[in-house]
Amino acid sequence: MTTTTEQPLDLVGIGIGPFNLSLAALAHGVPDLSTAFYDQRPAFHWHPGLLIDGTTIQVPFLADLVTLVDPASPWSFLNYLRTRDRLFPFYFAQRFHIERAEYDAYCRWVSEQLPGLHFGHHVDIVRWNPERQLFEVDFTQVDADGEAEALGRTHARNIVLGVGTAPYVPEPLRLLADAPAVPVIHSSDYLAHRDRLVGAEHVTVIGSGQSGAEVFLDLLRDRPAGREQLTWLARTPAFAPMEYSKLGLEQFTPDYTRFFHGLHERVRDELLPRQWQLYKGIDHDTLAAIHDELYRRTLHGGWPDVVLTPGVTVRTAGRVGTSRVELHLEHGQQGTRSRITTDGVVLATGYRERRLDHLIGPLDPYLRRDASERPRIDEHHRLIMDRAVRGSVYVQNAETHTHGVGAPDLGLAAWRSATILNSLAAAGKPGDVPYPLPARTAFTTFGLDGADTTRRRRGDGPVPTVQLRHV
To answer: What is the mean pLDDT of the chain?
Structure first.
């Protein structure tokens, strides 16, 4: 069976993670804006494999789906608590950072109440129809088991891609991660394999970020003192704390995002790797909890049977017998090599932006790309395309290379959603936007205020000027 929606929508969202859910919630408050959002999953779930008891999100509860743009929205976290008669308990709990499981429950509440969300719909392809001057979105409706039930097509004036990121498995471990008999799993699936890992004789955690720390701490707490048999390896030079000073956090403001977007492409590419501690470090409380747990295990003499080694990369990996793993390691600073044998590996190796080629392949001839063949994205989070395409394609969490470390940060979700909606509104009625935003959000001035941004940089030539396309 095939269904086609002939009446075009103003905006179609692909993917319903926190970012597109934020957009859908704020769009709900815009009069006369028709929207639909699609996701192949049967329901909303946010990193279910990492909802470890007691873990918290790393942004304050005010960084919910809507509050930093529209505190009076019915879709705020505080309103969620009110509908559950939990405002007073939350008030007395004095929690600025809520648990991950609570954030997941809040988002699921929004997804179940908000109209226009279509779960169980896998978007197959997006193309531009030049005759109708509309986007065509082809999808497959699937059942709870992921089996196709029906085909459909929706027409839209504008698209927003919020397909999220994919777990990253380093090349040396990919074959082992695909082998079901070998317990090499990504941290995104940790809880599904936790019992097996807790029962394993020796477990190795790889990764220096928050997920790696949380997995290591959870395993440590569940193993007997003196017989922990845990190894924690990291490529970074230290198990370092995340930048959490007040002025340091201003690098997650719209002010810094605008500054970063205005930098030359080469400068942006050089800057991002040096900012790893802004988003790949570990929460201070988690580091303290790990140290406290390790220290507690020394109270009666001896040291816990754990190894924590930063500065290490996995060169190669292989199977030993039917279920054990041998890791070949190299220490970059020492220039030394070693190997360990382990009964389980948890890869807390992060995520990578999903490639969009399969989804928007037909739009490729219209896309404008940078020197590294990545899509160029304007300050409104919109793909820069040929003027022949009159609609807009926006992206959420696929623009780190143009907008910096704030792209995947939950704290900028509402702001980016409002920016997208304001961009759509301004295209129809210039100057009339649904969510007026403040011109300044940080005490820090990130560039030379009032500087001529077209000046020559050393060896770069003139700074390229992007000509924005209006819908």
So the answer is: 92
Neighbours of 31 (CB within 10 A): 5
Q: How confident is the model at residue 456 (pLDDT cuts 50, 70, 90)?
A: very low
Name the strands in the sheet holding 336-342, side by side, starting at the edge strand that comes first in the sequence. 312-320, 324-331, 336-342
Asked if 177 and 163 count as a contact pair (C-beta separation under 8 A), the reply is no
* 130's tokens: 């030049």
CA distance 4 to 152: 5
| Of the candidates 379, 382, 355, 380, the residue with the CA atom closest to the CA atom of residue 366 | 382
Helix then strand then coil, in percent of the chain rounded to 5, is: 30, 25, 45
For residue 252 the two structure tokens come to 């997650």
Please compute Rg for the chain using Cα positions.
24
Alpha carbon separation from 219 to 133, 189, 232, 283, 346 (Å, rounded): 55, 14, 11, 18, 11
Return the closest-CA partner of residue 178 out of 40, 301, 319: 319
The continuous run of DSSP H or E covering 204 comes out as strand 203-206
352-367 per-position pLDDT tens digit: 998 888 899 999 999 9
Report pLDDT digits (tens) over 315-344.
999 999 888 999 999 999 999 999 999 999
Query: Under DSSP, is residue 294 helix (H, G, I), strand (E, B) or coil?
Result: helix
The DSSP line for 241-286 is: BPP--TTGGGGGSHHHHHHHHTS-HHHHHHHHHHTHHHHSSB-HHH
3-state secondary structure of 219: helix
3-state secondary structure (DSSP) of residue 292: helix
Q: Which of 121-145 are b and which e, b meaning 16 or more Cβ less than 10 Å from the residue's Cβ?
A: bbbeebebeeeeebbbbbbbbbeee
| pTM (2 d.p.) | 0.92
Residues 348 and 216: their CA atoms lie apart, in Å, by 10
